[in-house]
Amino acid sequence: MKNTSQNRSRIGDKTLLLLKFNYASSLLSLLLGFICYYGLQILKIIPFIFFGYCILNLLNVLGYQKHQNLTIMAIITSVLSLVSTVVITLYSGGIQSAFIFVLPVIVLAGYISTSVFGKIYLYAILTIILLIYIATVSDFNGFKNVVPETSQDVFSLLSLLFSIYLLEGVFGTNLLKAHFKLRKTKQQVEGKIKEKENLLKEVHHRVKNNLQTISSLLSLQSRNIEDSDIKKLLKSSQNRVIAMAMIHQMLYLHEDSTQIDYSWYVRELVEHLIRSVKGTSANIDLDIDIPEMKFNIDTAIPLGLLVNEVVTNALKFGILEDRKGEIIIRMQEGANNEFILEIGDNGVGFSEKVTHKNTKTMGLKLINNLVRQLRGSFERAASKNGTYYTIRFKEISDQIPATS
Q1: Stronger pLDDT, 62 or 241, i.e. the higher one
Q2: Residue 327, class by beta-carbon neighbours within 10 Å (0-12 exposed, 13-18 middle, 19+ buried)?
Q3: Residue 132: which of 151, 145, 149, 117 has the closest Cα?
Q4: Which residues face 260 on adjacent strands?
Q5: Who contacts 21 (Cβ-Cβ below 8 Å, separation ≥6)?
Q6: What are the backbone angles phi and psi of residue 255, rounded to the nearest 5°?
Q7: H/E element holding 71?
Q8: Can you tell me the distance from the alpha carbon of 77 to that of 86, in angstroms, rounded to the nearest whole number?
């Protein structure tokens, strides 16, 4: 709807500009015709060209009222202006005629139609000026200067005034108005974009606060529960909520509220998980190798939950008790906009027979669902110690809904 209204506005501005040019050039041509015939005693060709242009151009405007086709009116105006100007120039001194300055003015009328027609019109006028020059310097006798010698200075003055008025009074004024209108529109658009960015940041801030509230409620709930298994489940859910909250916090704090720096996010998330599961004195080494990559929120959330799940499983079931362990996370960009995430540990691992299809626990099932949401695939490297996954995925596009 906005694009349609903007297009209508532009067409309306172009129509108004062309109509002003037609009315102004027609009335000035009528006035110049009378001045030439009765005042300057130019009794041949030139005044009649002025009269003819006035009549035909006004008929062109009347025709537009019926067919409402701006392109047709612009082309007819351009052709009439070109033919009339060339004829008057040829019969008033050729390349030395001051009326030749009208030709650059009417190029602008050509651009009102379309930019392609305007360029064709420009090159046609440049060619015509060269031909007029050749005809003038070669003393071609086909076009005689019909302006009396005593009237040539006044005719030159009138020609310059005519071209200057059309250039400044018609095109210049309207182009200046269009410039201020465009600048005002640009400022309004920039203001709305800034307003939306601030609103989006505020949304991320509120979502982060709400997720932190949920995390706090889960923490409070776990204090009143004695069953250790249920406590672990609540703690896992709390970490998943925190993983999502961290993304919204990053989007709120950084200038770009649509994408996050994934390398920084993964390191912050894994360090939080180590403190949460193993405590502050954990003997865990991190080997994180992720180049500068940014993902949108639709990709970052399932990817963050995926890292959260794999690392949590490694800390709980792979690296047992207080043993020294290592978490490895690497990412690289592959072919065809594909990303390759390698994530694992050097812990005890688990049987290769256990898959997301036959396991009774939630971890592997959730990892599988998150990979499907990323429209990717994953495989477990049996040759490596501990548990090691290779995950291939592509960034989720706004146009392609993710699989749930």
Answers
A1: 62
A2: buried
A3: 145
A4: 295
A5: 77, 109, 112, 166, 170, 171
A6: -65, -40
A7: helix 70-90
A8: 14
3-state secondary structure of 14: helix
Where in 220-293 does DSSP place strands (E)? Answer: 259-261, 284-289
Residue 40 confidence (pLDDT)? 92
Amino acid letter for position 315: L
Please report the DSSP string for 143-211 in residue order. S---S-GGGHHHHHHHHHHHHHIIIIIIIIHHHHHHHHHHHHHHHHHHHHHHHHHHHHHHHHHHHHHHH
Mean pLDDT of the chain: 81
> Who's near 258: CB < 8 A, 6+ residues apart?
200, 251, 296, 297
Q: At what angle do helices 297-313 and 362-373 cross, to 10 degrees?
A: 160
Claim: this prediction has a pTM higher than 0.70: no
Three-state SS for 335? coil
pLDDT class of 271 with cuts at 50, 70, 90: confident
Average pLDDT value for residue range 356-383: 78
Phi, psi angles (nearest 5°) of residue 344 = -170, -170
Q: pLDDT tens, 96-140?
A: 888 988 888 777 766 666 677 778 878 888 898 888 888 877 766
Sheet arrangement for strand 377-380: 284-289, 325-333, 338-345, 388-394, 377-380
Collapsed DSSP state (helix, strand, coil) of residue 359: coil
Long-range contacts of range 63-72, CB-CB < 8 Å, 24 or more positions apart? 64/19, 70/11, 70/14, 70/15, 70/18, 70/112, 70/113, 71/113, 71/114, 71/117
Cα-Cα-Cα-Cα dihedral sign, residues 155, 157, 160, 163: negative
Looking at residue 3, its pLDDT comes to 46
Question: How many C-beta neighbours within 10 Å does residue 77 have?
Answer: 26
Q: What percent of the chain has pLDDT over 90?
A: 14
| Cβ-proximal residues to 124 (8 Å cutoff; 6+ apart), any chain | 82
Range of 73-77, 144-148, 220-224, 379-383 with top mean pLDDT: 144-148
Are 55 and 9 contacting, i.e. CB atoms less than 8 angstroms apart? no
**Beta strands 388-394 and 377-380: pairing type?**
antiparallel
* The two structure tokens encoding residue 180: 């201020």
| Distance between CA atoms of residues 134 and 139, nearest Å | 9
- Give 94's DSSP letter: G
